[in-house]
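Homework help board

Subject: predicted structure for assignment chain

Our instructor gave us this sequence and asked us to write out the predicted structure in C-alpha coordinate form, then describe one feature. I got the C-alpha coordinates but I'm not sure how to describe them. Can anyone check?
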Amino acid sequence: MFRKVDAREYVVGFYSTGPKIRANDLQVEELLRSYCEHPVFVIIDVRSDVVGVPVKAYAAVETLQEDGKETKLEFSHVDAIIDATESEEVGVEHLLRDINDPSVSTLAGTIKHKMQALRGLKDSLEEMREYLQKVVDGTMSPNNEIMYNIQSVFNLMPNLNVDSLAKAFVQHSNDIHLVIYISSIVRSIVALHSLVQNKVSFIF
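My C-alpha coordinate output:
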Protein backbone atom coordinates (compact mmCIF):
# COMPACT_ATOMS: atom_id res chain seq x y z
CA MET A 1 0.00 0.00 0.00
CA PHE A 2 2.88 2.36 0.75
CA ARG A 3 4.40 1.75 -2.68
CA LYS A 4 1.05 2.36 -4.38
CA VAL A 5 0.55 5.70 -2.65
CA ASP A 6 4.19 6.92 -2.58
CA ALA A 7 5.79 5.13 -5.50
CA ARG A 8 8.58 7.73 -5.82
CA GLU A 9 9.56 7.63 -2.15
CA TYR A 10 11.60 5.00 -0.37
CA VAL A 11 12.87 4.43 3.14
CA VAL A 12 16.40 5.74 3.73
CA GLY A 13 16.60 5.39 7.51
CA PHE A 14 14.99 6.27 10.81
CA TYR A 15 14.99 9.14 13.29
CA SER A 16 14.90 9.76 17.02
CA THR A 17 14.09 12.78 19.18
CA GLY A 18 17.41 12.35 20.98
CA PRO A 19 18.98 14.47 22.15
CA LYS A 20 21.84 11.92 22.01
CA ILE A 21 22.49 8.42 20.69
CA ARG A 22 20.91 5.69 22.82
CA ALA A 23 22.19 2.18 23.44
CA ASN A 24 19.38 0.45 21.50
CA ASP A 25 19.72 2.64 18.39
CA LEU A 26 22.16 0.16 16.87
CA GLN A 27 19.57 -2.60 17.30
CA VAL A 28 17.01 -0.48 15.45
CA GLU A 29 19.61 0.11 12.73
CA GLU A 30 20.17 -3.64 12.30
CA LEU A 31 16.42 -4.21 12.11
CA LEU A 32 16.02 -1.53 9.45
CA ARG A 33 18.66 -3.13 7.23
CA SER A 34 15.97 -5.51 5.99
CA TYR A 35 14.28 -2.49 4.34
CA CYS A 36 17.35 -0.58 3.11
CA GLU A 37 20.98 -1.61 2.80
CA HIS A 38 22.61 1.35 4.59
CA PRO A 39 20.02 3.12 6.77
CA VAL A 40 20.72 6.66 7.95
CA PHE A 41 20.05 7.55 11.57
CA VAL A 42 18.89 11.13 12.22
CA ILE A 43 18.59 12.76 15.64
CA ILE A 44 16.09 15.64 15.77
CA ASP A 45 16.46 17.64 18.97
CA VAL A 46 12.96 18.87 19.84
CA ARG A 47 13.91 20.83 22.96
CA SER A 48 12.60 24.39 22.92
CA ASP A 49 15.91 25.95 24.02
CA VAL A 50 17.88 24.49 21.09
CA VAL A 51 18.91 27.07 18.50
CA GLY A 52 20.07 26.61 14.95
CA VAL A 53 19.35 23.47 12.94
CA PRO A 54 18.57 20.73 15.49
CA VAL A 55 19.43 17.83 13.18
CA LYS A 56 22.39 15.43 13.29
CA ALA A 57 22.81 12.47 10.93
CA TYR A 58 24.77 9.26 11.49
CA ALA A 59 25.58 6.05 9.64
CA ALA A 60 26.72 2.76 11.14
CA VAL A 61 30.27 1.70 10.24
CA GLU A 62 32.40 -1.22 11.32
CA THR A 63 35.34 -0.37 13.57
CA LEU A 64 38.05 -2.53 15.06
CA GLN A 65 38.03 -3.40 18.74
CA GLU A 66 40.90 -2.32 20.94
CA ASP A 67 42.48 -5.77 20.59
CA GLY A 68 42.31 -5.42 16.79
CA LYS A 69 40.70 -8.83 16.30
CA GLU A 70 36.97 -8.22 16.19
CA THR A 71 34.88 -5.49 14.63
CA LYS A 72 31.82 -3.75 15.97
CA LEU A 73 29.24 -1.35 14.60
CA GLU A 74 29.44 2.27 15.68
CA PHE A 75 27.65 5.38 14.51
CA SER A 76 29.73 7.82 12.47
CA HIS A 77 28.65 11.40 11.84
CA VAL A 78 27.36 12.22 8.37
CA ASP A 79 27.03 15.71 6.90
CA ALA A 80 23.39 16.62 6.34
CA ILE A 81 21.42 19.59 5.04
CA ILE A 82 17.71 20.40 5.24
CA ASP A 83 16.08 21.00 1.88
CA ALA A 84 12.56 21.16 0.51
CA THR A 85 10.76 20.67 -2.74
CA GLU A 86 9.40 23.65 -4.64
CA SER A 87 5.83 23.02 -3.44
CA GLU A 88 6.99 22.79 0.20
CA GLU A 89 8.91 26.06 -0.10
CA VAL A 90 5.82 27.81 -1.43
CA GLY A 91 3.79 26.54 1.52
CA VAL A 92 6.39 27.66 4.07
CA GLU A 93 6.67 31.11 2.50
CA HIS A 94 2.89 31.44 2.59
CA LEU A 95 2.83 30.63 6.31
CA LEU A 96 5.71 32.98 7.10
CA ARG A 97 3.95 35.81 5.28
CA ASP A 98 1.09 35.59 7.79
CA ILE A 99 3.36 35.75 10.84
CA ASN A 100 5.71 38.43 9.53
CA ASP A 101 5.91 41.40 11.89
CA PRO A 102 6.68 44.63 10.00
CA SER A 103 7.37 46.47 13.25
CA VAL A 104 10.53 44.45 13.83
CA SER A 105 13.52 46.14 12.20
CA THR A 106 16.16 44.37 10.17
CA LEU A 107 18.74 45.35 12.78
CA ALA A 108 16.76 43.56 15.50
CA GLY A 109 16.53 40.49 13.28
CA THR A 110 20.27 40.57 12.59
CA ILE A 111 21.06 40.83 16.31
CA LYS A 112 18.67 37.96 17.03
CA HIS A 113 20.43 35.76 14.46
CA LYS A 114 23.81 36.69 15.94
CA MET A 115 22.62 35.74 19.44
CA GLN A 116 21.27 32.43 18.18
CA ALA A 117 24.59 31.70 16.46
CA LEU A 118 26.50 32.52 19.66
CA ARG A 119 24.22 30.22 21.68
CA GLY A 120 24.83 27.44 19.17
CA LEU A 121 28.59 28.04 19.38
CA LYS A 122 28.37 27.91 23.18
CA ASP A 123 26.55 24.56 23.06
CA SER A 124 29.17 23.14 20.67
CA LEU A 125 32.05 24.31 22.88
CA GLU A 126 30.39 22.79 25.95
CA GLU A 127 29.96 19.51 24.08
CA MET A 128 33.67 19.57 23.13
CA ARG A 129 34.65 20.31 26.72
CA GLU A 130 32.47 17.47 28.01
CA TYR A 131 34.05 15.03 25.54
CA LEU A 132 37.62 16.08 26.40
CA GLN A 133 36.86 15.82 30.12
CA LYS A 134 35.57 12.27 29.66
CA VAL A 135 38.72 11.38 27.72
CA VAL A 136 40.91 12.82 30.49
CA ASP A 137 38.92 10.96 33.17
CA GLY A 138 39.27 7.71 31.23
CA THR A 139 35.51 7.11 30.88
CA MET A 140 35.70 7.43 27.08
CA SER A 141 38.36 6.27 24.67
CA PRO A 142 39.92 9.03 22.51
CA ASN A 143 38.99 9.26 18.87
CA ASN A 144 41.80 10.47 16.63
CA GLU A 145 39.46 11.99 14.04
CA ILE A 146 37.65 14.04 16.69
CA MET A 147 40.97 15.15 18.17
CA TYR A 148 42.21 16.27 14.75
CA ASN A 149 39.02 18.26 14.15
CA ILE A 150 39.28 19.94 17.56
CA GLN A 151 42.91 20.80 16.87
CA SER A 152 41.93 22.24 13.48
CA VAL A 153 39.34 24.45 15.20
CA PHE A 154 41.95 25.84 17.61
CA ASN A 155 44.44 26.34 14.79
CA LEU A 156 41.94 28.63 13.06
CA MET A 157 41.70 30.90 16.09
CA PRO A 158 43.51 34.23 15.65
CA ASN A 159 46.66 34.94 17.62
CA LEU A 160 45.72 37.96 19.72
CA ASN A 161 49.31 38.43 20.84
CA VAL A 162 50.12 40.05 17.48
CA ASP A 163 50.18 43.82 17.96
CA SER A 164 48.71 44.66 14.55
CA LEU A 165 45.77 42.28 15.05
CA ALA A 166 45.07 43.54 18.57
CA LYS A 167 45.20 47.14 17.31
CA ALA A 168 42.76 46.29 14.50
CA PHE A 169 40.32 44.76 16.99
CA VAL A 170 40.54 47.86 19.20
CA GLN A 171 39.98 50.21 16.25
CA HIS A 172 36.99 48.20 15.06
CA SER A 173 35.51 48.21 18.57
CA ASN A 174 36.06 51.96 18.91
CA ASP A 175 34.38 52.61 15.55
CA ILE A 176 31.31 50.63 16.64
CA HIS A 177 31.11 52.44 19.99
CA LEU A 178 31.48 55.80 18.21
CA VAL A 179 28.48 55.03 16.01
CA ILE A 180 26.47 53.98 19.06
CA TYR A 181 27.49 57.17 20.91
CA ILE A 182 26.53 59.42 17.99
CA SER A 183 23.21 57.59 17.60
CA SER A 184 22.44 58.14 21.30
CA ILE A 185 23.19 61.87 20.98
CA VAL A 186 20.98 62.20 17.89
CA ARG A 187 18.17 60.32 19.62
CA SER A 188 18.42 62.61 22.67
CA ILE A 189 18.36 65.74 20.48
CA VAL A 190 15.30 64.49 18.59
CA ALA A 191 13.55 63.70 21.86
CA LEU A 192 14.31 67.18 23.25
CA HIS A 193 13.14 68.77 20.00
CA SER A 194 9.88 66.86 20.20
CA LEU A 195 9.47 67.95 23.82
CA VAL A 196 9.99 71.63 22.92
CA GLN A 197 7.62 71.37 19.97
CA ASN A 198 5.00 69.75 22.18
CA LYS A 199 5.35 72.49 24.81
CA VAL A 200 5.15 75.27 22.20
CA SER A 201 2.05 73.77 20.63
CA PHE A 202 0.27 73.65 23.99
CA ILE A 203 1.27 77.22 24.94
CA PHE A 204 0.10 78.79 21.71
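Reply (TA_rk): Your C-alpha coordinates look well-formed. For the description, you could write something like this. The chain has three domains: 1-82, 83-157, 162-195. That's the kind of observation they're looking for.
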